Amino acid sequence: MSIKAAKDLEQLNAAITRQFGDLSKRLQQVAKYVLEKPNGIAFGTVVMVANEAKVHPSTLIRFANAFGFSGFSDMQKLFQHKLLKESSNYEDRIKLLQDDHSLDTDFVGLQVLKQFSQANGKALEYLTQNINASELEKAREILKSADTVHVKAVRRSFPIASYLAYLLNHINLRCYLHDGVGGLHKEQEHLIRSNDAIIVISFHPYASETQSAAEAAVASGVPLILFTDSPLSPLKELATVCFTVKEAEVHSFRSLTSTMCLVQSLAISLAH
Asked: Among residues 251, 263, 191, 243, which one has the least CA distance to residue 222?
């Protein structure tokens, strides 16, 4: 039976996420690139995209065929159409910023500030247009009902966890930050009880310490609210509520602005 090609990018992304586990290792590699770098597909030739995704060009063609397209260029039209349809899409503008080699060395600090400000502005605009209101409300209900809220994140995502725990404690929710000080990650996991809730912030490459805490919480029957950067996050299947946030990226440095704004909004809404 022939596979029917997706009519738009949203359908394709849904199909990729749904069928990801059935794909070969190489096609999974392409799938991750397609979901995380859609502008790379829209702008690049098959050779350029293959180099970026670290696969052979023929693998891209096989990937397109696996989802019902006649070839790479046929699939690529969905990505190009998306950009043309949504001229305010922040990812397109961020791509242009990443390719900017005209920085004036006398004012590089100010120029980089402007680049980050513009990119984050577009990312926040994208966030407000794409957030799922019912999921946000579901997360609020989980946190309101919890005896204690546990927050876990490490490395790049830790500042978000730290600020969120600070906020929740100041609106009189009992909150515990799992900071792993002294390497006591496992010991802190043992504090989670069945009437609690856990918030996890985890970005690629998805730290094992965070995954361990999430698994321990879910095993105890605790609802998990996840903030992550990809629908292919290994924690998504564990989450009761999952927010996939697209952050701004300038010169290969990813921001935290959108996720910080989202967790701040969630916390403050609980005080209403």
From this structure: 191
Return the CATH number of the domain spanning residue range 9-85.
1.10.10.10
Its pTM surpasses 0.70 = no
Q: Does residue 229 contact residue 239 with C-beta atoms inside 8 Å? A: no
| Residue 249, strand partner residues | 254
8 Å CB contact between 251 and 121: no
pLDDT one-digit tens code per residue, 94-131: 565 555 555 566 677 788 888 889 889 999 998 998 89
Helix-then-strand count for the chain, H and E: 13, 7
Torsion angle of C-alpha atoms 44, 236, 65, 90, degrees rounded to 10:
-30
Query: Cα Rg for the chain, rounded, in angstroms?
Result: 20
Query: What is the residue extent of each domain of the chain?
Result: 9-85, 133-270
**Structure tokens, 50:** 């293959």
- Top CATH class of 133-270 equals alpha beta
- Helix (H) or strand (E) segment spanning residue 250: strand 249-250
